[in-house]
Structure formats: C-alpha cells, structure tokens
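Standup notes
- HV: blocked on the assembly model, inputs below
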Amino acid sequence: MREVLTNPVSGYYVHNDMLGAEGDFITSPEISQIFGELLGIWCVSEWMAAGKPKEFQLVEFGPGRGSLTSDVLRVLKQLKSVMGESAVSVHLVEVSPKLSEVQAQSLTGEDSQAADNENDPVYRRGTTNTGHPVYWYRGMEDVPRGFSIYLAHEFFDALPIHKFQKTDKGWREMLIDIDPQVANKLRFVLAPSATLASSTLLQADEEREHVEVCPEGGVLVQRLTNRISEDGGAALIADYGHAGDKTDTFRGFRGHKLHDVLVAPGTADLTADVDFRYLRRMTDERVLSFGPITQQQFLRNMGIDVRLQVLLRSCTDSSTRKQLVQGFDMMMNPEKMGERFKFFALVPHSRIAVQTRGKKAEQKGAAAPPVSGFSELGL
Ligand code: SAH
C-alpha cells in the first residue's frame, strides 16, 4: 500500500491530481466551502480556549488541492478582530510534489519557491494570498514545535495497513504474492507462520476474526499526543472510519468506482477505514480524545444549518444556490457522507481543566464543557 501510493517514482499520489469530478474520488472540502469554514471556526475556537497564544501554527496533513486550508485562512481573515496581533503560520505535510504545486498555486498564486537543496526539510515555501507564511514538509517530524492546530482530512485512510486473520493456529498475516498460475497477477496469501507484525501489532483482547492495523497511523497519533501535551494545541482527524468493530475495509477507487486493489497497482487510490479505537489507544490517555462522531453530528454541532441559510440569503444565482444545497446534502445525508465519515479530536488535559475552573466545576454535578463540535468524550 505504501509503495503503490507514495513510491517516489511510480506512486499513485506522487503524479496524479486525483481529486474532483475528473479524478478518482471527491472529498468534502472540494464539495463545499462550508466544510472548511466550519473547520476554520473549530481552529479559532480551540486557539481561543487555549488562551489565544501569540504564535499559532496551522498544520494540515495531506492537503490535496489546498481547499481546506484556503477556506480556513479565509475564516481567520474574516475574524481579524478576534485574531488580533497573533502570528499565524501555515505548515503543510505533503508527500506528493505534484499536489504540492497544485496547493501552492491555490494558496499563494505565484508567490512560492521550491527549495534549492533537495535535502532541505522545507521543500517549498511561500506567502499565502491572505499574507501568511506557508511551508511544505515531507513528514511531521520536520514541522517546527509550538502551539499548533493539526487537521487531517482523508489522510489516515491512505496510510498503509497490515491485515490479519484468526486461524486455528493463532493470528496469521495476510500477505500479497505473485500468482504462480497467471502472468502479471497478484493474489492474497496467508503467511504459513507468525510474522513480526502478527506477533506485535494485535491487541490481546481482540475479538474480531479479521483485523486491519495501521501502525503508521498509530505512530502519528503518538507524535501528535507528544506535541499537543507538551506544546499545546489540538488535532482534528476526519475520515472514513469506525470504533474498532469493522473487519475487511481495504479497497480501491478509480474514476469514482470501486477498483480491485490488486489490479494495475498505482492507477487507483487505495484506502482502509480508520480504526479510531486503535488511534485512541495510541494516545495512552496522555491527551483527551473526543469522538468518533459522525460527520453529520459534527457539522450540525458546528452550525452548518445556519451557515447554509446565511449563504443562501446572500446568493441570487440559481446554479450557485443549487450547488450549495446539493453540497450540503452530499456531506450531511446519512446515505452519502453524513455517517460514514467520522470526526475525532485530541486536546490537552489542560483544555478542560482550565474551562471547568472558570465554570465553577467544584459545584456538584457540573459537567465538563465539551470541545467545540463534540458533546462528549471519546469511545
Ligand atoms: N485532504 C485532502 C486530500 C485527501 S487525499 C482532501 O480531503 O481533499 C490524501 C492526501 O494525502 C494527498 O494530498 C496525498 O498526496 C497525501 N498523502 C498520502 N499519503 C501521504 C504520506 N504518507 N505523507 C504525506 N502525505 C501523504
């Protein structure tokens, strides 16, 4: 999965702009500006809850075409009176040189430069249309320390998974092999004995018979946990996902249709649902986690209904109105993206402690106020 998606020579993400009507799949930030605007409000509200730190890093993982960050920055600009003199900077973690160019174009116009030295951890830098400095990195380790709001939309589902099957002899890893009978054909096989992955990655209390584990996702959450607990900030992870109950979710998409994951590798997107229970375990409770809740719930809690009404009121063009309503339906309808997509947040323990003190938590029965968009703690 890693090779197929991110191999520097032939990886699917490295060469393609796969998003949108012409591509292989479409995502919420591409469907409607409202999505990014509501996430922008979430960022500002977490920054305010942290006591409005002077330096504010907005970090996005896998920004695709840059639409989400662009919508978030527009919100920050509109809330200038709230943002005051805070120094906002933008940090993008993107493996694809091709997509980083698309992002640079959308966020900065012509105002960005690639690094002279290819070993520079900042491989591109520029200034956004809103006047904020923006930097591109290959991995999170290169993003500077400091108070940060992290966004990951449809990012964790692209990180490689291991697949395991329970057998009479114990857990066995599913591997991919060349079919000896048919030329140029790949097939799934079960490892005849335990592998390093099958003896280390499964939880002792696992009840499923078939399990997918994404250790890179786990490591990323551990890194986010370290940063958020030490430097402050918050992370919002939104993806196809479940609370540790699904089994076989590995699949491919090409031209908006399901595609056999083993056929023509590199020509289709590969994805596996995010196991939020596993991600939560990886925090080791060193930060608080909220969710997963459905996209429908999250966007509703963030005020999507009011935002749609406001936009419709100020819009007279009938095709734009139609687009707004259709986009709303696509994102909110449980039959479409409303339920399959989940939202999950990480915040430092201090986030709730500070708030409850202010609200006289010592009064018996005073519930801890939730993080914006979420009504209760996770799982
Ligand atoms: N967030 C965007 C794009 C989702 S597609 C949206 O919702 O529209 C996944 C994005 O993650 C792409 O930008 C892809 O190039 C990037 N990506 C995938 N694997 C990555 C990895 N291992 N490291 C960094 N970026 C990665």
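- HV (later): unblocked. The pocket of S-adenosyl-L-homocysteine is lined by residues 5-6, 13, 19, 27, 29-30, 62-64, 93-96, 99, 153-155, 158 (CB under 6 Å). The chain has 14 helices and 17 strands.
- Next: hand off to the docking folks.
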